[in-house]
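Input (structure):
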């Protein structure tokens, strides 16, 4: 296991205790899903053979039993998942830095998500969890999982069709930048959509109240489009060293990141393709690699302060 967590005796004892509970839950879920599957198969076979009533009865009985098994284990499953976050992830956080804490049922409010201006589309459905807070040196930071979606409705011959689309799914990271910005600076990945947006911003109109900022680092301008309400401040903020650090951070990330600098805070959006900090059900907790993805993510977020050199106080707050 990475970062020396395999030498943490207290954590290993917690994992050993929870492994017993995990096996119990996994066995009950497996049994429940098997009965549900058998019920569905019996129903299909019965209808296919021309015996609809026996098919319904034969399929319904194992389905009900399977559903009861899953219901009976639901409270224990919920308690197990909560304990994993508090006792396992929480202990791993403390092992990394005593200032780090996790609040599984808290996150970043939708109002703050909109305030970051990382995405121009406001959410119609929003979920957030697993708020981690702490400090690295002099810099306070926090991050949480966020899933923001918007909906579209279209009229069809069968009525109204509602579809949900992702605005963002991943981790939103926020850190104190030790400077009160007068303007807003937004750094977006230069994908096809943003590239067209940047061209229009430069040649036709501005992006909201923010214009495209012309920067002198060709690698940075190739990867990102930068918008700013204060051109001078944006260039002062995005120093050559800062741009190089952002490029390095982006290269280390699974997907392209988006950043904003507002008031005295820096926000970074890290798109991800799965939920983190979730307790495994069908994988052993005693596997040395079981925690690696979660701990690697935590360590990555913690190291952002160092990667972006946020502890170097080159500015005052005012």
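Output (sequence):
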């Amino acid at each position: 296991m990475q970062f020396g967590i395999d030498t943490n005796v207290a954590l290993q004892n917690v994992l050993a205790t929870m492994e017993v509970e995990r096996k119990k839950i996994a066995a009950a879920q497996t049994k429940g899903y098997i009965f549900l599957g058998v019920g569905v198969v019996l129903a299909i076979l019965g209808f296919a053979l021309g015996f609809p009533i026996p098919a319904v009865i034969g399929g319904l009985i194992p389905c009900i039993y399977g559903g009861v098994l899953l219901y009976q284990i639901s409270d224990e499953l919920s308690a197990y998942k909560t304990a994993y976050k508090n006792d396992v992830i929480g202990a791993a956080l403390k092992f990394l830095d005593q200032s780090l804490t996790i609040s599984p049922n808290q996150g970043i409010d939708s109002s703050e998500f909109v305030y970051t201006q990382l995405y121009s589309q406001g959410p119609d459905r929003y979920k957030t969890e697993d708020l981690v807070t702490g400090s690295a040196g002099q810099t306070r930071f926090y991050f949480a999982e966020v899933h923001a979606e918007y909906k579209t409705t279209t009229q069809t011959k069968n009525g109204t069709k509602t579809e949900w689309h992702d605005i963002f799914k991943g981790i939103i990271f926020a850190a104190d930048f030790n400077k009160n910005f007068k303007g807003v600076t937004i750094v977006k990945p230069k994908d096809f959509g943003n590239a067209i947006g940047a061209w229009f911003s430069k040649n036709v109109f501005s992006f909201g109240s923010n214009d495209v900022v012309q920067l002198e680092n060709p690698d940075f301008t190739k990867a990102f489009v930068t918008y700013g309400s204060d051109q001078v401040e944006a260039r002062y903020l995005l120093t050559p060293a800062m741009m190089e650090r952002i490029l390095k951070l982006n290269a280390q990330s699974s997907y392209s990141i988006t950043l904003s600098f507002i008031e005295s805070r820096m926000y970074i959006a890290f798109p991800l393709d799965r939920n983190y900090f979730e307790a495994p059900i069908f994988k052993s907790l005693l596997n040395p690699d079981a925690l690696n993805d979660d701990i690697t993510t935590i360590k990555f977020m913690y190291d952002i302060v160092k990667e972006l050199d946020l502890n170097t106080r080159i500015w005052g707050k005012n």
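Notes: The longest helix spans residues 52-96. Residues 2-96 form one domain.
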